[in-house]
Batch of 3 targets.
Target 1
Amino acid sequence: MSESLNEIIKIVSPNYFLDESPEIEKYSVDGKKPNLVALPNTLEEISEIIKIANRDSLAVVPWGGGTKIKLGNLPNKVDVVLCTNKLNQILEHEESDLVATTQCGISLKEFQKSLREKNQTLPIDPPHLEKGATIGGIIATNDSGPKRLRHGTVHGTMRELILGIKVIRPDGNIVKGGAKVVKSVAGYDLPKLFVGSLGTLGIIIEATFRLYPIPKFSQTYLVNFPRLQTAHETVLSILNSALTPTCLELVNLTLSDSISDKLNLDLKKGEFSLAVRLENVEKAVKSHVSKLRDIYSEKSSGSILLEGNSEERFWNEIREFPWIKTENNRTVCKSSVLITDIPKVLELLEELSRKLGAVIYASVRAGNGILIISIEGETSKLIEATASLRDLVGSLKGTILIQQAPQVLKSQIDVWGEIGSSLNIMKKLKSRFDPNSIMNPGRFVGGI
Amino acid sequence: MNTKPEIESTEWKNKFCGKLVQILSEEGVISSQDELIAYECDALTAYSIKPIFVVLPRSTKQVSEVIKLCNKENIPFVPRGAGTGLSGGALPTEEGIVITLARMNHILEIDIPNQRVVVEPGVVNLWVSDAINRNDYYYAPDPSSQSVCTIGGNVAENSGGVHCIKYGVTTNHILSLEVVLPDGEIVEFGGKTLDHPGYDLVGLFVGSEGLLGIVTKVTLRIIRKPEEIKTFLASFDRIEDAGASVSGITAKGIIPAGMEIMDYLCIQSVNKAVQAGYPENAKAILLVELDGPIDEIEAQMPLVMEVFNENRAKEIRIAKDTEERDLFWKGRKSAFAAMGRVSPDYYVQDGVIPRSKLAEVLGEIKNLSKKYGLRVANVFHAGDGNLHPLILYDSSKEEEAEKTEELAVDILKVCVDVGGSITGEHGVGYDKKKFISLMFDEKDLDTMNLIRCTFDPQGLCNPGKLFPTPRTCVEQGRKSYRVHPVEKAGLGEMY
Ligand SMILES: Cc1cc2nc3c(=O)[nH]c(=O)nc-3n(C[C@H](O)[C@H](O)[C@H](O)COP(=O)(O)OP(=O)(O)OC[C@H]3O[C@@H](n4cnc5c(N)ncnc54)[C@H](O)[C@@H]3O)c2cc1C
């Protein structure tokens, strides 16, 4: 092993840390320290490193901003952490094509900043923006935020926005798929295969995206509802209307109260709130606001308007709430159910918090059926709450992913849950791409 | 691996047919030479091969059993929808059978509040929107062939349409697939809910051109109809001005639902064929459709007009009602068929370019047309740079057919040279397999082969398509093979 590590060190020197270095601690993966952290400068260097790792069966963990490194099952082993953040150049941005190609070690924040100069954006708002989440990490986790409703939900996720990709395969070969134009069906859709693959099929080096113009005007309405049922009815009415919100977020009591306190919003205590974001030309936003009022007016117990900084701060809270605190006794889950099943999950959460005395924050992409849930409490309570949630969501044919949990809990469960009949083909894919199982071994679904 | 049966022998054939009939009953098997002719080719009629049998299953179970039988007897099989494909994707293979999904054509579930529709693969694209029209919902991907082509074919080709600039293509609207794998196993990819954990097998399967298995059930995402639709028709003296208008509109921050350009030859043919009433003398017309909230459209309309005027538009019409709007689109959607009016044969090319290179590429195509002495009519999804140059020729003249092929390839080279793609929506299939190397090197193709071999190690599912040369699956594993941890742990197996 030390010989292989020396070979790698030669390639990246002086950009590396060894296990005696104090720096290495922060590159631990679920408590496992790597033997080497390498910070290569070029894709050729990465390719060389991967070849060595593949030859000698070293476990490689790709590392972007490190913001989501806790996602996944406990690793089987961690030999080399491979940082991508030196590969951070935007390679092409042709304004009139609304397309850009970038190296994937760049942070989303930097990428957006550059696009903004041309009044364009990658319409995606996953968490960890300020902490430096990279494009590569967001692709590998298919992470997303509240902004998922535009144009029949073509917005909001890497899955829908990625057009082309360049990756380094686990055998070190540099390969590409997709294209640099907005439409191409030449060959299999390699970009989609890599979205959400958690680094288990190779290292994502470059990606091409479709972009959109930045909307001219934005307002958010925060509407209070004393009862969950009426809040949900309002959601269904909005979805079935001509309104085109870009975000529609249903926030549970605990989270609503906490955000209200933090941002001095004066929301009614102990009620659900529904946040409706409208982004468009000013006139369209304003006329939609009055239509929106007609929909909710009889059912709600009050509403406030957010714009400018206060609007941004609110959405920042929604995006980041599970990740702001660092307490250990916490489980963060992302669950996906049908829109009509959302109330059932929220009701269970209220019941669990009463029964267990756990503090449960939840925010729901009400137009997509995605719930972000953060549960705080002793480990035994976390275990019980997670199990109940899994039972319910399973019976609803939904999915639940445990994004973060204490190691005790993680050692007892598969954070991805049941995969069903497609797991077998996933395993076969993995062993075709990575026969020596060097890429992030053990962290993905079904032990992949 | 089995050895090839003597498929020539009538005895084997009768026996095999008997086994198919056992699975599908008489009505589900076509064996008469006359009837087989209908399945010799898809809409790319230049290639044709007669299959040994055609089967028409009615259930997933039947599909699975037929495939298992094919595996046992080592017989290749080709999935087929409506046969409107333009790349020879459903072209039968020598000594193989065709599995047509046309009879699996039921809409299984309509769930408006959850915005989902579940269909069998033989359901025709337009039936979906028709079924939910009264709920004010629709299915967004709308290929021009939508009144005939099937959802199964759309999934296999990742079909586009005239509204994909804003709403994306098929892959953006598919949530789950039931698939019969090339070994007969029935599996489900994705689900009705979003963001399924694991590899995105739905994303991988859509656009895989029938090489990774047969789709037997599809969950579609449907969307709410826009509050308002406005369709413009602008005519120009120069096609370049139409192209510049397209860039001008997006530069204003407007993403129309669709933007389509037709050139002179195309306009003439369409007017003759379907009385579209397009301005007779126009050298080019640009159709622009805006959809969305009324106020948004009202704000955008003057901007669009401004762009038209800046680019010297001659005549600008705005559809005053649905009827006129349909007429604007009718010409566009029948553009391919209309070529029959001006030429005995035509070949549809399907290249993609960055929008910003439109004028340059159109110029190149004009030069190539002169060079080969063949007329080229241009119709294209201008909003996403997807060109459909229609090469007009006479197949009874041998040299013309040859020249057409050369010209078609030269156009692709131009597209790739400016950073584009050899196919935007029609697929590689049989037709373009030689040209996929213009975009992808050996290692890229090798990666795609890893995928194919994962799904179809025997190479029985729609073989001879997509890849420029036949590729085997054992090679890869053998070269560097050693028992790896996944296999040791019994988690996976080698193929
Ligand atoms: C006039 C005309 C206009 C067209 N306009 C457009 C357009 O605007 N946009 C566009 O994208 N395309 C267009 N096309 C091309 C064509 O209609 C599409 O590719 C369509 O999706 C093919 O559907 P089909 O049912 O006819 O499939 P087929 O042609 O029968 O098959 C296409 C491919 O799909 C595979 N396949 C079929 N069913 C299944 C299944 N159930 N499981 C797995 N694989 C399957 C076949 O093996 C084949 O490879 C047009 C074609 C014509 C003739």
Target 2
Amino acid sequence: MKLVIDESRCKGCNLCVLVCPYKIFQEGTELNSRGIVTPVLDRPERCTNCRLQALYGRMLCGVCHMICPDQAISWVEERPFEPHKVEVEF
Amino acid sequence: MQGNAACAEGALAAGCKFFGGYPITPSTEIAETMARKLPKAGGVFISMEDELASIAAVIGAAWTGARAMTATSGPGFSLMMENIGYAAMTETPCVVVNIQRGGPSTGQPTRAAQGDMFQCRFGSHGDYSTIALTPNSVQEMFDLTVKAFDLADRFRVPTFLMSDEIVGHMRERVTIPDTVEVERSRPLAEESLPFEASADGVPGFAPFGSGRAVHVTGLTHDERGYPDTTDPAAHDRLVRRLVAKVESARRDIADYEVTNPDAETVFVTYGPPSRTVEQVMRDRPDDTIGHLRLRVVWPFPEFALHEFPNAKVFLMPELNMGQMVREVERHVDQPVVSLPKIGGELHTPAELVRALEAHR
Amino acid sequence: MIAPDWFRDDRLPHIYCTGCGNGTIINCTLAAVEEMGWKRDETIFVSGIGCSSRAPGYILTDSLHTTHGRALAFATGVKMARPDFNVVVFTGDGDLAAIGGNHFIHACRRNVDMTVVCMNNYIYGMTGGQGSPTTPPGAISSTTPYGASEPAFDLAELAVAAGANYVARWTSYHVKELTKAIAAGMQTPGLAFVEARTQCPTNYGRHNKLRTVPAMVEHLRSHAILVRKYERMVAEGVPIPEGAFTVGELVRRSRPAMGVQR
Ligand SMILES: Cc1ncc(C[n+]2csc(CCOP(=O)(O)OP(=O)(O)O)c2C)c(N)n1
Ligand code: SF4
Ligand code: SF4
Ligand code: SF4
Ligand SMILES: [Mg+2]
């Protein structure tokens, strides 16, 4: 699974930056076409849900997309599947 | 039977399934009768914490498709005004009974008046239109309550039964039919949006649970029901329609009695003053005296005034300082004489005869 | 995106300001609704007036966006007329506790079977940030420029005292706990009241030294004390930090309820 931010909805509040335990969301620096600074993703393949949702068949962690007030965070199927080398820092 | 009890019987006969109210003299017997009978008829009676809540609960229940009503008097009616505007804006069919008493403020709790006739038309802020019925007998408390539900459903407007302490507390014989025919709202067509009106200006109704996911809001909204609060055209379209759907059906909604259409002196009445006029006309049969009695006052049937082509003067006894008389004045060229009376008593026949002599 | 089937896609993005917690609370409520397995055709959202009360407009069910303060009275009518419907009310601190205070205590007393989610942002958000009955003493708002001088209401305690069968409080930071609490409330027959303390960055945070959205949420998180811990602290005589409030389940009971489907 691949983590994506819907640029048409994100308002750049950075709550995802606050809550992700892996610090995958980083405060952005550049304005997008809507004039909003959206967060950038740092190695999103580390996200628990990216890695394990398919295995467990349900949402894992998911705190970012629950707190996102603008319904901007979601996961999409990767097609074709791209295997990632994942380093998880504890 | 008492007028208020007949009103409750009318509601039950019309299939009313929800009553939310707060006690107030002189309307309380309606709530008490509903409390006794509605649960046995498979309906819900609930005593709300105030009149703001009563009308709110009634509107909520109405959106489940239930016929719903509340009953009150002046002070409670005043409290209901904001949500009456909400019902008008959201096109919620519901019935509000006002057993009028002397006002302003707490006024005369046990005395009759007709002082809320403009409040029921213009009491909430903004432009809208409503329907108001004015019974003058216990039988009409029954009949017009049934009719109020039908009109509320058909036009999707809050509809008022504007009675008063005299008729509410009067005791007379009533005939209650075994069943009454009722007319419900037209269902929302599959292909129509929730607030998309038909040719008559009234949208079909999809009560909650119909699977149409209707968003109901008091904000200015489009045909989908979505708020659109800044576009002048959207507001103009909606509010004009809300007014027009009632006003353009004036002839359809109208309900009045004409006596002696050739008369030169014409009494115009609604509610209990009509009884005194009838008394006067019985006492002194005289073809030159006419009587127009309105059972529907809003939307105002101005064309009914023209049923008296020979009229030289209109006399209007009302239990207020002169309210509906303004509406009559607006629509005729002849002189219109207001015969106001406040304090809680009906005009006596002698008073009306004096007025008759003085003005014809 | 949480509960995609329940959002009115054609109305998103919503009108809320950047970082407004209301969107989060809608997420949590819809996650709870999904957990309950409710059907959209049988679920009704009701609200009053305020930013918080705009929530039903973004949900794809029948919904009533009513007048200021009266949501609970409207909802009582809906639920009593159709006990088979699931009724959820969204309200704000002003809507619920100021103009709607009377309906609040009576709805709790009647214990009508519905779930009430109050987005308490300590302020009248929609009208531009005036002091409300939950504005903490000392806080700056446009009508308390020298600091609020009135004591504030504790909404959850008020619901407990008035008789609601389920009462809990969480914040917009505690998304998982809040979702669980809303679901627990939905399962409890009778009135379930869930207070969700939340951030209004635009009209509250800015004026109260909480300039960024994360700073506001962090403030909520750090001032929340679990009910149990709070009770222990009180028992042990440990001083309660300034501005702290309890979170967790305050009550779950089975007083007689109305409008419960038999
Ligand atoms: C009868 C009435 N009085 C006042 C208002 C103006 N008004 C709209 S929203 C609001 C305050 C809302 O505060 P709250 O319920 O806390 O909601 P929030 O916007 O903070 O979510 C007020 C006073 C109104 N709409 N109706
Ligand atoms: S689901 Fe959890 S781990 Fe994955 S990005 Fe969101 S917060 Fe981070
Ligand atoms: S929480 Fe949502 S809206 Fe806020 S910055 Fe992250 S993706 Fe954007
Ligand atoms: S004013 Fe406050 S409560 Fe209203 S949308 Fe903005 S942040 Fe949210
Ligand atoms: Mg608020």
Target 3
Amino acid sequence: MAEKEFWRWPEYRHTTPGINWREGKVISAGVDIGSVSSKTAIMVDGEMFAQSAMRTGSSSPDSAERTMNWALEDTGMTLKDIHYIVGTGYGRVNVPFAHKAITEIACHARGANYVWGPTVRTVLDMGGQDCKAIRCDERGKVQNFLMNDKCAAGTGRGMEVFADLLSVPIEEVGELSFTVDEEPPPVSSTCVVFAKSEAVGMLRSGWSKEKVLAAYCRAMAHRVVDLLNRVGVEKDFVITGGIAKNIGIVQRIEKELGIKALKPDKWRSDPRFDPMLAGAMGAALFAKALYERSKGQG
Amino acid sequence: MMKANYGYADGSGQYYITLDTDKCDGCGDCVRACPASVLEIVPNEFDIIDGGDIMSVREEHRKKLKYSCAPCKPTTGGGEPPCVTACPHGAITHFLSSAKGQVM
Ligand code: SF4
Ligand code: SF4
């Protein structure tokens, strides 16, 4: 089992420098347990303070504890110091220490509003196992949404399967998919299982890895653009979730949609704005609001 | 206005149940009218601060509405299904269509 695991994306933690959390009035946290990744965002008075992202294990409660503990690591803060915690994502009801669970749709819209500001009107959340097109108002409140949870194509899990199949590290998939002379037609299968066997066939018939990747990225982009058109895209448009970091997908979506995503690279210069953590950030902001309300009412 | 769309589109058509969450007061009439236990009343997670309860499509039915809602025949011109007629506030809309090309 010494083989390289190409699908592995980097797990990480981060603390925002220069924040003295002991002086904060409200310490809130959001824990997003997705099917593929688990994320924690800890905020001090509504500003990102500490965060972590790691792979979801076989047990949701366990994954929740691990991502929370990792985010807390070396901050001097403990779970007891956090006033209010909201769980979100597919495992949201299985976060043992959460005070409340809120759907990831609401959290992604709120998180996108935090990361990119009040001009955001359309959010595409590309998660591990499904895709959601969300319309929201200037406060990040959901107005309309559509999910596409029919199968794993067009999702993080589908991308992992492909990275592994082609032995390409997942972070390099995007770049590599642009190294083709000519953009190939998209893979025709919308199901990831069939797309995989289609890809094997392409490789056998002499297609390069890059070409197969390009064909797959294109198919993925096509599927989500379908979803987006159904809710109607209004600017500003942003992409959240792990796949937001894959330029091979992002640029193909932009091209097909005819609309550019707002600053998809913001996270590169400032890790606080990781699009993968948008759901956890939204949850932390709801946690703050819920805590303040509980105080306000005595 | 906030619309929650549950369902999917695939090669055979589109299958969506749409709820206008602002109109829904969580009375549960639709849940009682549904012969297939597709619907449920849950806390309004979209407006957690003062949203109250609303109707939702049960998670296990979201990927198979074509089959779950088959008893009501909304895709074959059976008229408005029980959930839609039961709602006193007109909060539910169905976009269930086995023909391609119907625009939401
Ligand atoms: S169409 Fe029939 S089965 Fe489907 S939700 Fe409405 S009442 Fe229930
Ligand atoms: S009948 Fe209408 S108002 Fe009552 S719970 Fe159902 S959707 Fe909401």
